Amino acid sequence: MLSRWFFVLLSLCASAAFAHGVAQGDAAYIQSATGVQFFPYLYLGAKHMFTGYDHLLFLAGVIFFLYRLRDVALYVSLFAVGHSLTLLLGVLGGIHANAYLVDALIGFSVVYKAFDNLGGFEALGLRINNQAAVLVFGLAHGFGLATKLQDLQLSPAGLVANMLAFNVGVELGQLAALAVMLLAFQYWRQSPRFLRGAFISNSFIMTCGFLLMGYQLTGYFIA
User: Band of the pLDDT at 212, cuts 50, 70, 90?
Assistant: First the structure.
């Protein structure tokens, strides 16, 4: 039963993923704000991650078969380090990347993790360093966040403090989403149908990743 709800949740995530970005009202606020706005940016960062369905799909794949909190903490920390670095370097360091290609890479990260969960790399005889992969894909996800902010006219006054606040908010939003997912997984894993549902869910996650990739690559070639 829970696997059905998980499938519905992923469906909602996928349907909204294509519209993922900075909401119009939030964008208007960011472009009009000047000076240090710590708590508003903290809120916006948390909101962006908690509603960032591409990020959540990847995180769901990462923790799908992690049963120990120590392992969850390790992988989530690697992801957080990666996306924090490129978020701050992208906005504060002025490092730019094509948004379509970055988002296509994010879609590929979703495909990668679902394929790994399905035993695809093992079947191919490939050994992947999952910790390094999560860190690298974290860098891509951070650039995804940075490209959304680079599209806006950010005031240089208080920019460093505001970006640090935004990044802290992203981490808080990630922790909140992670807590919800961990509780759902903990309950679901007690069901004898978990493994069958896991196959279906990861197949769907991988499909969502391919759709994200296709959508973004199409945008890149026609833009």
Answer: very high
Amino acid residing at 57: L
Q: Is the pTM of this model over 0.85?
A: yes
Q: Is pLDDT above 70 for 30? A: yes
3-state secondary structure the chain: CHHHHHHHHHHHHHHHHCCCCCCHHHHHHHHHCCCCCHHHHHHHHHHHHHCCHHHHHHHHHHHCCCCCHHHHHHHHHHHHHHHHHHHHHHHHCCCCCCHHHHHHHHHHHHHHHHHHHCCHHHHCCCCCCHHHHHHHHHHHHHHHHHHHHHCCCCCCCCHHHHHHHHHHHHHHHHHHHHHHHHHHHHHHCCCCCHHHHHHHHHHHHHHHHHHHHHHHHHHHHHC
Distance in angstroms (rounded) separating the CA atoms of residues 205 and 200: 9
- Specify the pLDDT at position 21: 62
Q: pLDDT tens digits, residue range 132-142?
A: 999 999 999 99
d(CA 210, CA 207): 5
The domain ranges of the chain are: 35-222
Mean predicted confidence (pLDDT) in 29-45: 88
